[in-house]
Write a structure and sequence with these properties.
Elements lengths: L1 E6 L4 H10 L4 E6 L23 E4 L2 E4 L1 H12 L10 H30 L10 H30 L13 H16 L6 H12 L1 H10 L6
Parallel strand pairs: 1-2
Antiparallel strand pairs: 1-3, 3-4
Helix pairs in contact: 1-2, 1-5, 1-7, 3-4, 3-5, 5-6
Length: 221
């Protein structure tokens, strides 16, 4: 049976959603984050050397990385390519957004998360304002000027469509869901109605709701 090594409040929630959309049977093996560091437990390293979720096992196969897991599941179980376009502009869009999610958007969001947490860590009181000034400058001068155009591109892309690649839901939408949910907690999306509409459509999907019910309450860090 397929097993998902599922770290709470993480990218692995997307894999549960994909499995539900594919109507596959699977087992969830849950892992809790360290309450102080929010890091994954060392026990995940027993499944994969890097110890990072999501990890999927299917028989003798162990697959890590969200994109690789998605491609594996579609190759093995998506009969009729229901969640992956096979030609034309929809296929090009699918490939772009599938890789954009982790290759372009998530690195900046992770950097922003780290920068906002640094001043909150224990340190001498006189260092805190210096740390905050430095991290704020990194966000303002490096991260935000790179993040903003990406958010604007996404908003423009969704202006005349519900989903990223073609008329229906694809795995690219599932892949894009997490970074956009993370964006909603790390920046003000009130000026981006198309992104907010996309996230609303995501939450309406029965398969998404089933994944939440099985994977537990989900929030981005």
């Amino acid at each position: 049976m397929i097993q998902v090594h599922h770290l709470e409040n993480s990218r692995s929630q997307r894999i549960l959603w994909l499995l539900e959309e594919l109507n596959l049977a699977y087992e969830i093996i849950e892992y809790k984050r360290d309450p102080n560091t929010a890091s994954a437990p060392d026990s995940l390293k027993e499944i994969h050397p890097l110890g990072k979720a999501p990890i999927l096992t299917d028989g003798d196969n162990t697959i890590a990385e969200s994109g690789a897991i998605i491609e594996y599941l579609l190759d093995q179980y998506d009969e009729g390519n229901r969640l992956r376009p096979t030609e034309g502009q929809a296929l090009l869009d699918y490939r772009y957004w599938l890789h954009f999610a982790e290759g372009s958007l998530m690195p900046l969001l992770v950097m922003k998360l780290v920068m906002t947490k640094v001043p909150k860590n224990p340190m001498p009181f006189f260092i805190k304002p210096i740390a905050k000034a430095l991290t704020d400058k990194v966000i303002q001068k490096f991260i935000q000027p790179r993040l903003q155009p990406q958010i604007e591109l996404i908003e423009a892309t969704l202006a005349d469509r519900t989903w990223f690649a073609g008329e229906g839901l694809t795995a690219a939408d599932i892949q894009m869901s997490f970074p956009l949910q993370a964006s909603s907690t790390r920046m003000d999306l009130s000026s981006y109605p198309n992104i907010r509409k996309f996230l609303s459509e995501v939450e309406k999907q029965p398969s998404y709701q089933r994944a939440l019910a099985k994977g537990g309450a989900f929030t981005t860090l």
